[in-house]
Amino acid sequence: MHILLTNNSRLAEEAGAKMVSGSFRDVLLAARDYVYVGHALITHPLFASAGMMFSPIRSILISEEKTKDSIHAEMIANAISDYDKMISLRGTDEKNRKDYERIDEELYRVALEEHQRFNLGG
Q: What is the pLDDT along the chain (122 residues), one digit of tens a residue?
């Protein structure tokens, strides 16, 4: 199982969804709080594309089970630091919010499918 931390209203009804009110950074902080008590990141907290860093929308999958692997704590701390550096260059792109919601939803669905396939051994 998984937990979906998101500020994307399009994903509010998804299984395991925990809505985070606020920004992309607020979702990162929520993920950090879960990771610091032992949950593992399933998806990377940042987008692969630098342009997507200016999105106001973010969804992150984390494990429901807890782990003792500290790499996740380091990864989320670095992600928050990197996000802060990038966003200081220019603000979030609110003008294209609806497009970012659709992109984030699609990325979530692909990530979930891959996670399920990996965990089922297929």
A: 899 999 999 999 999 999 999 999 999 999 999 999 999 999 999 998 888 889 999 999 999 999 888 899 999 999 999 999 999 988 899 999 999 999 999 999 999 999 988 886 54
CA atoms within 13 A on the CB side of 111: 20
Domain ranges of the chain: 2-119
| Token pair of 74 as six digits | 């380091």
For strands 39-41 and 2-6, give the pairing.
unpaired
State how far the Cα of 69 lies from the Cα of 83, in Å rounded to an integer: 23
CA 67 to CA 72: how far, in whole Å? Answer: 9
The model scores a pTM over 0.85: yes
- Cβ distance 66 to 9 under 8 Å? no
25: left (phi over 0), alpha (psi -120 to 50) or beta: alpha
Residue (of 109, 26, 119) closest to 65 by Cα position: 119
Write down the H helix ranges in the chain: 24-36, 71-87, 97-119
